[in-house]
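[Q] Does anyone have a clean structure-token version of this?
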Amino acid sequence: DEVIPSDDSDPIDVVYRGAIVERLEDALDELPENQREVFVLHEIEGRSFKEIEVMTGVRLNTLLSRKRYAVLKLREQLLDLYQELDD
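[A] Here you go.
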């Protein structure tokens, strides 16, 4: 919410939003499937880890590890974009 402008923003924000979403989708595509799945379910779909555990049959600690690795990789991949937007 802090980085991605809302849909009802001015035209420049709409362009930024499109660029951010595109880069995020590309970065997500580069993650291993199991990391991408837990990240999307938790961060984008808003599901709890308990829900994800029940849905997937994967233990909580494993889900937490996968999410952690996904976040670290995404931070690395999106750092340059964040720096561009910060300027």
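[Q] Thanks! Anything notable?
[A] The radius of gyration is 15 Å.
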